[in-house]
């Protein structure tokens, strides 16, 4: 029964998507064949539905009823306007061999993909954030103001479709929506091949993509990469079609999909300059009118991109969050985190040399998380496709969509370029009559899930089993997930033991898609980073302010003091406490004092709260000119200023005191003393977590403090509530 | 034509919003609520002494020079310290000190016996001058029932100055961290 409800939800979502797309095509009236009508209708309809769901989430009306209303209206209007009626024009039938290859591959692999998509969602990213965010938006009936998840700041166009399906059929319905792109993509490639006189190449390329292990794995989970590849290819196909026919009605579609591509996956931002320059160049070469088509194109791009940028501006103060924080400084993502995150994405641990990438991408897949299939070792042959116009365009598109790849060398990030590589290769293979089918047969055999274990890395992402019992819910969902997702049991533990208004801090390891509680993950935001620093300071001496730099000078009367950094370094500069000391001892901090810091002014109070656990951090690597400043309400006499800092502090900061409106530099070198080790540091950390709204902490077995908190929970001031797999859940007392 | 006009308006509006997209930075912040972490900073911690601290003398029972106020303090051959511990379980003694290069040239490797409440905790030999750190857990029963916990560091080979004064090591920090 559950499986039926999931399938109905999925069918309703796809029907809504198709209805919207067909209505759009009916309005624009491009000269398509009926095959193109349904493929382009699906992709453009998905863009429209995504936009509609975005608007509903923005105005906080995410309810199942809202989505049902949208779907019913779209389907009824489509029906009444007869937009669903197939267009008259059709491509000639494919040759028998091509039909046989395509149908057998689609059905054989499709059964695997479908069953895996229908089974309870068990993918890593799907359960950890794609559907985690969807669950959260569903629970809070809209976007709300989520500033604690960098993933929530990324454009989430496909997640909007997931949200629609999820509201009706939960996790598996969402995964099936992604599966629908896996079906649409090969058809888009086939249609393109038929349109441009290369039907065999289209079929071969479609099969190469469709049977590729990484496409099968990704497309049957709640990821977004197959959808990204599908949108990229559809955009390309529309651009080529427009170049051929110059139908003005294709321009808005191109703009829509170019903007949509960015909204599906950030790395597809290249689609926008690609489409804009392509159209501009073609118009200019033909001396055609430029202004109007370009305006329409850009407006449609903005229609899809603008909402996501605006959402980020309003929510986190950076339209391009979680990136470009140096350009748009904000309190939500640290620049130093962004830098290390980008570095992390560029370097996969286990990859010994960049020369290993081709084999990793095609055969092994253990390090780069999945592989395309051995047949893609032939991809360089595709360069021979430069002989033909279509081949040149396909290779250009491959280049464009591969441009962001060095920023993340995981196999998934090459998926948007893969259909173009497959097409250019297939165009070359098409020249030899039997070669295409032979390559397809080889690809079929080596990509078949049972064959993969013979050659690929044991850890390569791939479909492993035909989970029909799980898919049909003959095996209980919880049992299925407990067997396959180690993060599932902790998620349920939290859901069962944490009250609805509770907030859980963790360093990771919880499948938030299955946990209807507010979980703050340490690395996902500046807020999370700050909480992590508290916990680190509880036990790690390097995070504790045991070094005191004291600036001593002859008695001075002043109202303003500042500590200015003069060094450059890789570490973030930080100050735990800055104290002013006069002849009678420390000057008590006054309510009328004003505090400033640059950069990261938002955290300056943490250096003046009399707590050794908290600290102001520059949130970016040390550079000259950073400062922390105190302005007093009236002049006081000072003899010392003391900076209490962590041992890694570069001791070259300069103390400046304002006298008669002029900043005077204190020339004397500061004196370093070591304070005693922090007392009750664990308890202080917990108090600070509570002060920041946390009620629980979920500790992972890999966490650096797990042994300490396990041994001495009373020192921390926490109570163990339960444990599941690698997670121990504590209540903050 | 309606569409281009709308396009321009939409584009200009979006541009205007993005151009002011930076988060507003307040000019300054007030002093936050003060956490009551320790009375008088960390100096009054009765379980740990920092030799340079102004109130460190109250930890010294004997054989630690109190008249110089540098970062480190010279000890004699048998310095003794005292601490007030709030708990006796899972405690360890930490003793940080420096072996002076000049004295080391004459004394050679320095051997030190560490006592806690007259129980020999360890006998350590140091084969080079410079900063040293001794750290070892202390049995609970040695600490139980004592109002003051006394720590002795008996230096076996001391250095005799021209004035006849015996010098041991330079004390930096010592005590029972949490």
**What is the makeup of the main sheet of chain B?**
9 strands, antiparallel
The separation of the N and C termini of chain B measures 76 Å
Radius of gyration of chain A, CA atoms, in whole angstroms: 29 Å
Distance between the termini of chain A: 44 Å
Report the largest inter-chain contact.
Answer: A-B, 55 and 44 residues
- Gross morphology of chain A is elongated
As a percent range, the share of strand residues of chain A is 5-15%
- The percent range for helix content of chain A is 40-55%
The protein's oligomeric status is heterodimer
Summed over residues and divided by their number, the pLDDT of chain A gives a mean of 95
Structural class based on helices, strands and sheet pairing of chain A:
alpha+beta
Helix run count of chain B: 3
Q: Which structural class do you get from the secondary structure elements of chain B?
A: alpha+beta
Globally, the shape of chain B reads elongated
User: What pattern of helices and strands is seen along the backbone of chain B?
Assistant: HEEEEEHEEEHEEEE
What is the radius of gyration of chain B?
A: 29 Å
**Main sheet record of chain A:** 8 strands, antiparallel
Number of helices of chain A: 25
Sequence stretches where pLDDT stays below 50 over 5 or more residues of chain A: none
Structure write-up:
The complex is a heterodimer of chains A (733) and B (178). Chain A has 25 helices and 15 strands. Chain A is of the alpha+beta class. In chain A, the strands form three sheets. In chain A, strands 3, 5, 6, 7, 9, 10, 11 and 12 form an eight-stranded antiparallel β-sheet that branches. Chain A has a five-stranded mixed β-sheet with strand order 2-1-13-15-14, sandwiched between helices. In chain A, helix 1 crosses helix 3, helix 5 packs across helix 6 and helix 10 (250-264) runs parallel beside helix 12. Chain A starts with a helix and ends with a strand. The model of chain B is unreliable at 38-43 (pLDDT under 50). Chain B has helices at residues 2-19, 101-107, 140-143; strands at 29-30, 48-50, 60-64, 73-83, 91-99, 110-116, 119-126, 130-138, 149-155, 159-160, 166-167, 170-175. Chain B has 178 residues and is of the alpha+beta class. In chain B, strand 6 and strand 7 form a beta hairpin. In chain B, 28% of the residues are buried. The interface between A and B is large, with 55 and 44 residues. Strand 7 (594-598) of chain A pairs antiparallel with strand 1 (29-30) of chain B.
């Amino acid at each position: 029964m559950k499986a039926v409800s999931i399938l109905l939800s999925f069918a309703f979502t796809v029907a809504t998507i198709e209805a919207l797309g067909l209505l759009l095509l009916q309005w624009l009236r491009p000269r398509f064949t009926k095959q193109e009508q349904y493929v382009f209708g699906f992709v453009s309809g998905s863009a429209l539905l995504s936009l509609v769901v975005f608007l509903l989430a923005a105005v906080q009306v995410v309810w199942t009823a809202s989505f049902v209303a949208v779907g019913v209206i779209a389907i009824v209007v489509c029906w009444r306007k007869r937009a669903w009626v197939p267009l008259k024009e059709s491509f000639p039938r494919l040759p028998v061999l091509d039909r046989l290859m395509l149908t057998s591959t689609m059905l054989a692999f499709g059964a695997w993909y479908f069953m895996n998509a229908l089974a309870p969602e068990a993918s890593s990213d799907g359960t950890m954030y794609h559907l985690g965010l969807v669950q959260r938006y569903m629970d809070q009936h809209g976007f709300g103001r989520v500033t604690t998840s960098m993933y929530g700041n990324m454009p989430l166009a496909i997640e909007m479709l997931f949200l629609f399906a999820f509201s009706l059929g939960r996790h598996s319905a969402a995964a099936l929506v992604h599966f629908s792109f896996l079906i649409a993509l090969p058809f888009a490639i086939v249609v393109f091949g038929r349109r441009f006189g290369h039907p065999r190449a289209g079929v071969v390329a479609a099969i190469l993509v469709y049977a590729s292990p990484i496409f099968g794995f990704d497309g049957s989970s709640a990821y977004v990469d197959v959808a990204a590849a599908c949108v990229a290819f559809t955009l390309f196909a529309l651009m080529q079609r427009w170049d051929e026919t110059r139908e003005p009605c294709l321009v808005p579609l191109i703009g829509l999909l170019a903007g949509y591509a960015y909204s599906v996956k950030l790395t597809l931002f290249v689609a926008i300059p690609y489409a804009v320059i392509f159209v501009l160049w073609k118009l200019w070469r033909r001396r055609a009118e430029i202004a109007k088509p370009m305006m329409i194109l850009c407006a449609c791009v903005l229609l899809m991109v603008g909402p996501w940028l605006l959402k980020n501006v309003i929510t986190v103060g950076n339209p391009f969050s979680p990136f470009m924080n140096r350009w748009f400084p904000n309190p939500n993502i640290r620049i130093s985190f962004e830098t290390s995150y980008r570095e992390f994405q560029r370097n996969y641990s286990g990859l010994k040399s960049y020369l290993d990438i081709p084999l990793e991408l095609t055969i092994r897949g253990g390090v780069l998380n999945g592989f395309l299939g051995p047949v893609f070792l032939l991809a360089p042959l595709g360069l021979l496709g430069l002989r033909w116009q279509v081949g040149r365009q396909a290779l250009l598109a491959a280049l464009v969509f591969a441009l962001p790849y060095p920023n993340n060398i995981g196999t998934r990030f090459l998926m948007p370029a893969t259909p173009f590589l497959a097409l250019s290769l297939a165009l070359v293979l098409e020249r030899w009559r039997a070669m295409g089918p032979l390559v397809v047969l080889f690809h079929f055999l080596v990509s078949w899930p049972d064959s993969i274990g013979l050659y690929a890395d044991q850890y390569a992402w791939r479909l492993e089993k035909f989970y029909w019992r799980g898919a049909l819910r003959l095996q209980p969902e919880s049992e299925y997930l407990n067997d396959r997702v180690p993060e599932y049991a902790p998620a349920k533990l939290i859901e069962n033991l944490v009250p609805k208004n509770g907030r859980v801090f963790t360093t990771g390891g919880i499948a938030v898609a299955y946990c209807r509680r507010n979980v703050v993950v340490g690395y996902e935001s500046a807020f999370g980073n700050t909480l992590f620093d508290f916990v680190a300071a509880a036990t790690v001496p390097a995070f504790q302010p045991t070094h005191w730099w004291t600036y001593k000078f002859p008695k001075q009367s002043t109202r303003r003091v500042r500590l200015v950094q003069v060094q450059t370094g890789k570490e973030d500069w930080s100050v735990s406490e800055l104290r002013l000391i006069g002849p009678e001892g420390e000057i008590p901090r006054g309510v009328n004092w004003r505090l400033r810091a640059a950069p990261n002014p938002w955290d300056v109070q943490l250096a003046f709260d009399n707590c050794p656990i908290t600290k102001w951090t520059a949130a970016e690597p040390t550079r000259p000119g950073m400062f922390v400043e105190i302005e007093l309400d009236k002049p006081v006499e000072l003899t010392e200023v003391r900076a209490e800092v962590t041992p890694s502090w570069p001791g070259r900061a300069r103390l400046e005191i304002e006298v008669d409106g002029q900043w005077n530099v204190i020339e004397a070198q500061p004196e370093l003393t070591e304070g005693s080790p922090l007392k009750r540091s664990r308890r202080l950390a917990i108090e600070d977590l509570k002060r920041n709204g946390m009620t629980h902490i979920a500790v992972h077995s890999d966490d650096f403090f797990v042994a300490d908190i396990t041994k001495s929970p009373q020192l921390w001031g926490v109570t163990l509530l339960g444990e599941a797999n690698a997670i121990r859940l504590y209540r903050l007392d | 034509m309606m569409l281009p006009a709308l396009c321009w308006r939409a584009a200009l509006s979006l541009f205007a919003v993005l151009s002011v997209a930076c988060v507003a930075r307040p000019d300054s912040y007030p002093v936050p609520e003060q956490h009551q972490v320790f009375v008088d900073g960390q100096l009054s911690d009765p379980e740990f002494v920092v030799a340079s601290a102004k109130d460190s003398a109250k930890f010294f029972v004997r054989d630690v020079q109190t008249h110089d106020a540098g970062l480190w303090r010279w000890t004699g051959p048998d310095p003794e310290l005292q601490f007030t511990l709030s708990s006796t379980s899972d405690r360890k003694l930490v003793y940080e000190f420096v072996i002076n290069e000049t004295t080391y040239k004459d004394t050679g490797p320095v051997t030190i016996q560490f006592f806690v409440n007259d129980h020999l905790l360890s006998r350590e030999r140091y084969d080079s001058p410079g900063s040293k750190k001794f750290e070892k857990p202390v049995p609970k029963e040695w600490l139980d029932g004592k109002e003051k916990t006394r720590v002795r560091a008996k230096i076996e080979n001391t250095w005799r100055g021209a004035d006849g004064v015996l010098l041991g090591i330079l004390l930096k920090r010592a005590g029972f961290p949490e």
